[in-house]
């Protein structure tokens, strides 16, 4: 048990936690590459100016684009988005990491 009174095993299984495996990473390769590319100011400017066009140019799937548009941070993580990459998307949109974490906690 922990502070929440829930067994640790329950907290470490979906929908509460997601395993970041090589399979997950490969599935979300384009998403993660796109997000990491947002480190460059020029890429952030392009993304902010036209989110959809920037994502299409990066080869994101329709479901990935819909998750970004919906600000579905938990869905992006479950899909295979690396947490640091997902946070780069959020930061580019003016969303802070604690808001992303709150979403993942259902808050």
Structure commentary:
The chain has 107 residues and is mainly α. The chain has helices spanning 8-11, 22-27, 29-37, 41-49, 51-57, 62-69, 73-79, 83-92, 97-104. Helix content is 64%, strand content 0%. The mean pLDDT is 85.
Query: Could you report the average pLDDT, rounded to the nearest whole number?
Result: 85
Strand content: under 5%
- Strand-pairing-aware structural class: mainly alpha
Cα-based radius of gyration, to the nearest Å: 15 Å
Q: How much helicity do the residues have?
A: 55-70%
- Stretches with pLDDT under 50, minimum 5 residues: none
End-to-end CA span:
22 Å
* Major sheet details: none
Q: Helical element count?
A: 9
Number of strands: 0
Sequence of secondary-structure elements: HHHHHHHHH
Instruction: Give the CA-based shape.
Output: globular
Could you give the topology of this structure?
Layout: H1 8-11, H2 22-27, H3 29-37, H4 41-49, H5 51-57, H6 62-69, H7 73-79, H8 83-92, H9 97-104
């Amino acid at each position: 048990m922990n502070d929440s009174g829930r067994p640790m095993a329950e907290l470490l299984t979906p929908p509460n936690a997601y395993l970041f495996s090589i399979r997950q990473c490969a599935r979300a390769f384009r998403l993660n590459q796109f997000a990491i590319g947002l480190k460059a100011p020029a890429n952030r400017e392009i993304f902010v100016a036209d989110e959809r066009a920037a994502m299409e140019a990066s080869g994101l799937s329709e479901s990935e684009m819909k998750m970004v548009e919906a600000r579905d941070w938990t869905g992006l993580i479950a899909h295979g988005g690396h947490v640091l990459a997902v946070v780069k998307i959020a930061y580019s949109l003016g969303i802070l990491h604690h808001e992303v974490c709150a979403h993942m906690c259902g808050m």
